[in-house]
Amino acid sequence: MTNFVLNQSHGESWTLYHADCIDVLKAIPENSIDHSIFSPPYINLYCYSNSPRDIGNCASDSEFYEHFGYVIDNLFKV
After folding, report:
1. Strand partners, 26
2. Is 46 helix (H, G, I), strand (E, B) or coil?
3. Strand-pair partners of 8
4. In angstroms, rounded to a whole number, what is the distance separating the alpha carbons of residues 54 and 67?
5. CA–CA separation, 11 vs 61, rounded Å?
6. pTM score, whole prediction
7. How far apart are CA 62 and CA 27, in angstroms?
8. Each residue of 42-60: pLDDT tens digit?
9. What is the mean pLDDT of the chain?
């Protein structure tokens, strides 16, 4: 995992990540997740950070939906 993983915990049959999901999703094998909980950003509703990596900071609705679609597609893969 990259330095964007803020924290993680492991149990016998589970792993919990507090991280940038784009980084974590790249390292998770396809069809290996049974349940996912995530907190997506919403357009101009809450500022999580000033980072350009934060899709909540997109310049337009269409840019947000393009980036969010990428996240959802990758969530379905795992």
Report:
1. none
2. coil
3. 17
4. 10
5. 39
6. 0.69
7. 28
8. 776 766 778 877 887 888 8
9. 82
